[in-house]
Design brief:
57% strand, mainly beta, elongated, Porin, 2 helices, 8-stranded antiparallel beta barrel
């Protein structure tokens, strides 16, 4: 009986040693390297059939040099005709959007490398007078809240250890527009993108 108890205790001890040597499965194996970046972004596109420039910024947390989780926000800075004439002057389109961004970077340590990215978020669109409206508000239509989905592909140049210059293309998908003279299709479209990234990669 005593021998049996000793055998059971010994077996349990051996199993404990084996279990202690095992490690839980994780998404990122081994030591995880952390980094981060931020910087301004320029996007050349078309809106309502007119050339348009968006200016904004993005930043995020970098995991193992290759995976990025962060966010960005962008606003239309050029005058785009909203196609709404008024005695107070033609209306111009107001449009901005932003959201969560996820990115995968391939061969981050190469001089020139590429990444794929996806933005999921939302924004607002409306129109305002090009001159001050004596009624007290330049906006004469409520801002529409829209959904925005924007995939992108970029190429990156390692300029210095802490600076990357990125250029690429993106497609902006917009849904939820109710403004009478604007549509989802007229706000959706391709963009040429340039990003100035500063950080620890």
């Amino acid at each position: 009986m005593i021998k049996r108890i000793i055998l059971i205790i010994g077996s349990l001890a051996a199993m404990t040693v084996v279990a202690t040597g095992q490690e839980a499965e994780t998404l990122f194996a081994g030591e995880v390297v952390h980094g981060g970046f931020g910087g301004p972004v320029l996007k050349a596109s078309t809106v309502n059939g007119s050339p348009a420039l968006f200016v904004g910024g993005r930043g995020g947390w970098i995991i193992n040099h290759s995976f990025m989780l962060g966010g960005g926000g962008y606003g239309l800075v050029t005058n785009v005709d909203a196609r709404v004439p008024s005695v107070y002057g033609d209306r111009r389109l107001a449009f901005g959007y932003g959201g969560v961004e996820m990115e995968y970077v391939h061969d981050w340590d190469r001089l020139i490398h590429v990444s794929v990215m996806l933005l999921i978020g939302g924004g607002g669109v409306g129109y305002q007078a090009s001159v001050d409206d004596p009624r007290g508000s330049n906006y004469d239509h409520p801002m529409d809240e829209v959904f925005v989905l924007e995939p992108a592909v970029e190429a990156h140049l390692n300029v210095t250890e802490f600076f990357r210059l990125s250029a690429g293309v993106a497609y902006r998908y917009v849904n939820g527009v109710t403004t009478p003279t604007t549509s989802n299709a007229s706000l959706s479209g391709g963009s040429a993108v340039m990003t100035f990234r500063f950080g620890e990669f």
